[in-house]
Amino acid sequence: MKLLPAVLLSTCCVTGTAHAQEYLPILQYHHVDASTPRSTSVSPEEFKQHMDYLKETGYQVLDLETALQRIRSDQPLPDKAVAITFDDAYLNIYENGFPILKEHGFPFTVFINTGPIERGHRSFLTWSQMEEMQKSGGVFANHTVSHPYMLRLEEGETVGQWEQRVKQEVADVESLLVSKLGSTPKMIAYPYGESNDSVRKLIKEQGMVGFGQQSGVVSKNSDFANLPRFPAAGPYAKLSTLKVKLRAKPMPIDAIENGGDFASEQPVKMALTLKEGRYRTSELTCYVAGQGKALLNWRDDRTVIVEAEQAFPVGRGRINCTMPDQSGKHYYWFSNVWIRTAAEQRYVTD
Fold first, then answer.
1. 253-345 — its CATH code?
2. Most C-beta atoms within 10 A of its C-beta, which of 92, 105, 123, 211?
3. Which phi and psi (to 5°) does residue 315 adopt?
4. Pfam families this protein is in (predicted)?
5. Going by DSSP bridges, is the β-strand pair 262-263/31-32 parallel, antiparallel, or unpaired?
6. Is 14 helix (H, G, I), strand (E, B) or coil?
7. What class has domain 6-248?
8. What backbone phi and psi angles, to 5 degrees, belong to 174?
């Protein structure tokens, strides 16, 4: 059995219902460096500011794998629970992020792409550094071998060959995690956040948990083959933005229509049906990436049609929806991501 760091044992295993939380916001980072691409980076100073805020305001930073297991088995988390993750195995996580995490006693998860690690790329972690990080709450999970666009066919590749390649990308990392680090948490972050029904079916069959790049909060009702996280770097690195996300709750959705994975030349549209309850529906707001507010048309008291005014350009587009709870202290949050493909990209859309 894997031993848990003392800090984890003191925060994750809350009993009783006092101050219990049934959901988990998860923070997503990439680089911790001031000289790397801003869109995926926080400076060491910004990262320390984030971690200091979590510590000073009583947030309970949990081991991700353990927290998800508790949510799925109806065991409460502590109030103000949160988890910290990184995508890609960048060396600056070890150099600039790890000392801060260690100082604060925070567990964390790094989703690693093993290709550059095995090649000894100087900008990526080594297995010995990861072993050191494990001793202070670090957990390492799957981000594929080569960080591909997982839904694209290679030149001349059949769908059957694509399926086998995707399986191998995942399986090779799982084997390395076990042989090099002793275990795998059986979690994967999809490169670029992209997955489809076939990939998510594969992940479920392997008994794994998958993460996309849509924002939101994890609850028992989430799709555990495509869980949300909150980006906390680049334009989202401001502490004021982070505070709102840390107070987020899962949108109380009963059903989603026309969410899907792919967009066409037509504007995207989806229908959200809320669970029975009293909500501040007049304050529900949805934003379309690059366009501003979405059009909202309430079909009835519980179901709203959310529609973009324009089609997405080629690439990934999203709609984020938020609504204050009755207290006004928290926001319900939901996000859906679509991929608008180009023919030459050879996406597998089924």
1. 2.60.40.10
2. 211
3. 130, -155
4. Polysacc_deac_1 (PF01522)
5. unpaired
6. coil
7. alpha beta
8. -60, -40
Q: What is the pTM of this model?
A: 0.93
Q: How far is CA 101 from the centre of its chain?
A: 19
Amino acid identity of 79? D
Q: Helix H segments across 30-76? A: 44-56, 64-72
DSSP, residue by residue, 147-200:
---TTBPPTT--HHHHHHHHHHHHHHHHHHHHHHHS----EEEPGGG---HHHH
pLDDT in tens, the chain (350 residues): 333 333 343 344 333 334 689 999 999 999 999 999 999 999 999 999 999 999 999 999 999 999 999 999 999 999 999 999 999 999 999 999 999 999 999 999 999 999 999 999 999 999 999 999 999 999 999 999 999 999 999 999 999 999 999 999 999 999 999 999 999 999 999 999 999 999 999 999 999 999 999 999 999 999 999 999 999 999 999 999 999 999 999 999 999 998 889 999 999 999 999 999 999 999 999 999 999 999 999 999 999 999 999 999 999 999 999 999 999 999 999 999 999 999 999 999 87
